[in-house]
Structure formats: structure tokens, C-alpha cells
Amino acid sequence: xxxxxxxxxxxxxxxxxxxxxxxxxxxxxxxxxxxxxxxxxxxxxxxxxxxxxxxxxxxxxxxxxxxxxxxxxxxxxxxxxxxxxxxxxxxxxxxxxxxxxxxxxxxxxxxxxxxxxxxxxxxxxxxxxxxxxxxxxxxxxxxxxxxxxxxxxxxxxxxxxxxxxxxxxxxxxxxxxxxxxxxxxxxxxxxxxxxxxxxxxxxxxxxxxxxxxxxxxxxxxxxxxxxxxxxxxxxxxxxxxxxxxxxxxxxxxxxxxxxxxxxxxxxxxxxxxxxxxxxxxxxxxxxxxxxxxxxxxxxxxxxxxxxxxxxxxxxxxxxxxxxxxxxxxxxxxxxxxxxxxxxxxxxxxxxxxxxxxxxxxxxxxxxxxxxxxxxxxxxx
Amino acid sequence: xxxxxxxxxxxxxxxxxxxxxxxxxxxxxxxxxxxxxxxxxxxxxxxxxxxxxxxxxxxxxxxxxxxxxxxxxxxxxxxxxxxxxxxxxxxxxxxxxxxxxxxxxxxxxxxxxxxxxxxxxxxxxxxxxxxxxxxxxxxxxxxxxxxxxxxxxxxxxxxxxxxxxxxxxxxxxxxxxxxxxxxxxxxxxxxxxxxxxxxxxxxxxxxxxxxxxxxxxxxxxxxxxxxxxxxxxxxxxxxxxxxxxxxxxxxxxxxxxxxxxxxxxxxxxxxxxxxxxxxxxxxxxxxxxxxxxxxxxxxxxxxxxxxxxxxxxxxxxxxxxxxxxxxxxxxxxxxxxxxxxxxxxxxxxxxxxxxxxxxxxxxxxxxxxxxxxxxxxxxx
Lengths: 380, 380
Fold this sequence. Notes:
alpha+beta, three-stranded antiparallel β-sheet, 7 helices, 23% strand, globular, HIT family, subunit A, homodimer, 24% helix
């Protein structure tokens, strides 16, 4: 892990260690590379417990899925009062934050309450194959997009968004190299409606020691399509959406955003590259440049989608997740894409995942995908 | 559909038709069989539109799942004011309800805003196999457990709960006989936290024209286990849980309730029969009698699980769903079980299905299944 080809020469990358041994990495994208310098002035002296270790994951024999049992996370930080944001630079508030610097551009660090960690002290096991378990090895990271507590991804400059793209690629490359890791999922949860407990603009990365259930389903379908046609499912779907046209929202030189034909969320958009690439690492400079622009454009549209009673736009609660090829399987049939989805089905009204969705996985969408796409084109 | 073996002689079963052609069935379990008589006095004269028809379902090529696109449901009844509950008997309020009777015991009727219906006017289709669609044929029903608006399933008498079990079996038998139907899912959503829009105690039934995604996963695992061992996965899991003991909550003569080893919800309990049965229809009288008692016991424990700040119990928001064998496949390896799950992970704190769960289907549970089981035994 000594070369860092993903962040180029524009970004200064500085790795350091927090008081409990967790890694923290600054990605400074502008002179005078403040945080890289500042970290030598601020030392993390918090009396933290030791480096967090992995809990256990259990195999759900009924479905074949792994479930992480992380009972240590029950006490994680929940809506801290102002001045105690753990994602703000240290020095701005009344207590030391997670980030021992007076300022930063983009910073990544290992989650203090991880669902998956690189070391395990788990000892439990079961003789019964129906009650299978394993240490929850892997890694969970937090990505702070900016030191500005009141910002959001959509308010970042294109240059900063471009830095975040490079950071995502950097993390994908490094986390994919860990022995335990089978899949790297990069995502952002935004909004209290989706359960966000920290308002500071940030995303997360989960590096799993297995291929998660939905990713496995994507892989099954992509493999079957490739076996039948010799082509990539993702590429054929993009061609079909471009041909149909009615669900396309943004069409760039390298990227297309569309509402998927069988959207299951009231508001769902896929952002897919023109070129067949398995993951973020494979994107070239031109593709990364346009991604920063197109993604910001998409987020601006999403924030204009609904209007409140006073006609003002509503900050959309959303989940945005990057579906990348698994680390060690199906890379030749998988195709990178971003899925953005929201549970807001009207101002003040949420879609709940109740009996049909949560019980048996049968989704009912009350909104026409074509109507969603038309509205997203209108607010561009 | 002229024989009704599931409800026996104790229950008087009367089918009628609402103003728009939807079927409504009274199940009267006590003298003088009020609603069966009353329906001849109250006629449903509401100026309703015609019988609701099926919308379209679309195939999500990325996952292989069917998604019902039901944009007509966007305007369904949402938290009606007092006196306008559509599930109360007509006459009690200021406007006619869905139920044209002055009183009733248990009643089932076709949902006015169905995700699946028996007739379709859908004409849309696509030439592209990647954009597959079909009419959303099937049937959606509402089951009112009592005419008492302020009651809940947990406050029903054992005799009434027993009637509901018979009604579930009746509906499973009839809906399984419909040509389009491949799977019958019986469920109850309770609590505003899970999105319930009508407080009157009721459950729902979805009769799907496909085997839903999670049900398909259960079937895959059960089939594989049967191929390897010649035994039923559900039976072996029950044996393993009884052997382990630490997650068992209630052990009856015919039914066992346990927190599953790999529980994914903060509060999740499975209620399973001792005997291998594929669905509710196959339960004998003794099993139905005990089911009514054990299920009420379980619901009472769930309502005592959490305490509010004043020490008072908290009505638990939950989803309860009956996993039955699909209608036309895998019946020999499937095993009936009830799954009860709650998103409440502490008083006033919900589990949200955010990036990991919603994006890739990887669940993280912050609560130890053994601790949940211990608490449920304690509040028995």
C-alpha cells in the first residue's frame, strides 16, 4: 500500500493513526494542503479504548445470507449536540473530534463503531452447520466530503467532487487488496428520514468478507445474460434505455442517468458509464471529470424534485450506492453503476418497506418511472 | 368456490358484493351472527368507480425480480379523521365505510387500491426482452380482525384469534385456486412507525402471480438442503434451536417460538409448527387451537418488551408474515412459519434500512438474538 495511483499528483495524500490505532487518511486537494500540515500540530490524545475489533457474523440458513451481529454498535454516536460533531475539524468545537486537524479537504478514517473490522477477537463457534458463523472481518470507513458542517455533497464544487471520485477509487483499490475482502460498497445516506445520525456531509464504505445478497443477485443475472448473449447485461440495459428515451434524465459524453424501467423506489435513478468498466478504479480522467459534473447535476435536480408548501425546494433524503464488481468473482460480467434512491414519495410522505417488501421482497412502486424521469428533466 | 371446509361449522361464512363489484366475506363466529343478518339491511350505495383492475408489473432485469407499478395507489386513504374509518361498520360514523353492516366479527374484502387484481385492462407491452412486463394479476385482500376500532390483534379473545386462523386458511385455499396465483402471503403491519395508514386492527393478504424474491431464496435453500440430506430445512432448524435452547421463547405442544440464530431485525421471532406442514390449510384443529393461544402469548410479550420513560409498556410496531409453500412449486420442501419483526431497536429509536441493507442486502443487527430471547422469556 505504498503507491497511490488513484489520487494523482493534484491531491496530497497523508495517512496517520488515531489514538486507538485506527487509520485516518487526509486527501488535500488545494494549497496550502492544510490538513496534511495541521495534523503535525494536533495530536489525537483522546482516551479511547483499543482499536475496534470485528464482531461475529452469522449465516442465515433459511436464506443463505450472512448477517453481521454487531451489538457493540448499539451505543454509537446519535445526533450529537452542536459543537460536538465528531466529523468537524478538532478545535472548532468544545471537544476533540475524530479528525485531529484544524482544517481538512477530504478525509477518510476507519469507523469507530464498525460492522466489519480487520482484526477479530471472536471466539464463538458452533458445531451445528445450520448455526454457522465467522468473524466479521473486513473494514468500514467514513468519508468526509468537506470540513464545512452545513454543506452537502450537492453543494461541493466540481473540483471537490472530482477529488471525492479519486478518493473512492483509492479506497476501492486499497480495500480490494485486503485478504478478507470480497466486495467494496461505497455509499452515502442523506437525511434524517433515512436514519442519518450525523449531519456533517459524509459517506461510508463497507468492505465485506462476502458478496452481499443483492450483489449476488445482480451477478447471477449478469452471468446468465452473458452466457446467453455473450454481452454485458448493464451495457444492453443502457442501450435499451437510450433507445426507449422516456426514462433518460441526463445524457453526457461518458455518463447517462436514467430512471430504471422497473424502479422499485418512489424516486430512483441509475448513473452508468458509457464504457464497460467493472469499478471506479477503471475510470479514466475524462470519465472522472464528467462524473463529478453529472453527479452534481443529478443531485441538484433531486433537491428540486419536490416543493414544500411554500414552494421552496426540499432537501431530498436519499441513499446513493456504487455497485462495483466483486473483488474476486464475476468481474468480467459486472458493470459499474450508481444507484440513487429515495423513500420520499411526496412531501412529508415516506414509502415504508412493510409486509410485501420486508416479508417476501415483492416491491410495489406507486409512482410511474416515466413520470419521475419527466419531472427530473423538467427541473434540470 | 362453494365449499368452505376451512371455517368449519362454528363460523357462518357469507359472501357479498360491494358497490363497485368487489367481493366481501363475513365470517361470523358468535350468535346471533350479526353481520350476516345485517348485510341484508345495509346496502352499499356509494358512488364508487368500477371494480379495480390490475396495473402492470415490470421485470427488473438487473435482479430478476418483478416490481408492481401501481401508480393508482398514490391516492389511497391516508389517516382518515375519526368517524371516517373505512374499516369500521357502516352506521357508526358520518360516512359509509367499506363494510355495509352495522356490526361484524371478522370480515375480508378485496382491497380498493390493489397492487394485484383479478382483471386487467393493461395493454402496454415492450418488444425488448430487457424491458419485460405483464399484467399484475392476482388479488389483494384486507382482513378486519374485529369491528372494535381501538382493539389490536393482541387484545382479541382466544376464540376470535382462532376464527382468524380459520379465515387465513380459508383465504389461502381459495386464493391458491386462482389461475394467476403462484404465492399467497398473509401479513399484518402494525404501528405508524411501519407506515400503517389505518389504525383499525386489520391484516392483509397478497396473492402474487409470481414467487417473490425472498420466498424464492427460502425455496432455493430448502431445496438444496433437501437434496443433500433428504430432510426439511425448517424441521432441522427447529431441532437445532430446541437443542441450543438459548433463543427459544415459547415451547408448546404443537408450536415453538424462537428468535432466529441469524436474526436481522432488532426484534425478530419465528413461530413454527412441530409437524411438517406446507401451509395454514394443512393445520389440524389442535394445531389451530394452540396457534391462537401461542400467538396471543407472543404478541403480549412483544408489547411488554420495551418500556417507555414512565415504565409503561410500548405498543410494538411490527410486521408479521406467514411464509407458506408456493402454490405450484417446492411444496414438498417448504415448511410453514410465521415471521414477526420490528424496526424498533430501543424506545423511540428505529432501525433504518440504509445503505448496506437497501443498497446491497447486507444486514447488520445491533442486538444479540440471545439477549432478545432472554427478555422475551422474562416478560412472559
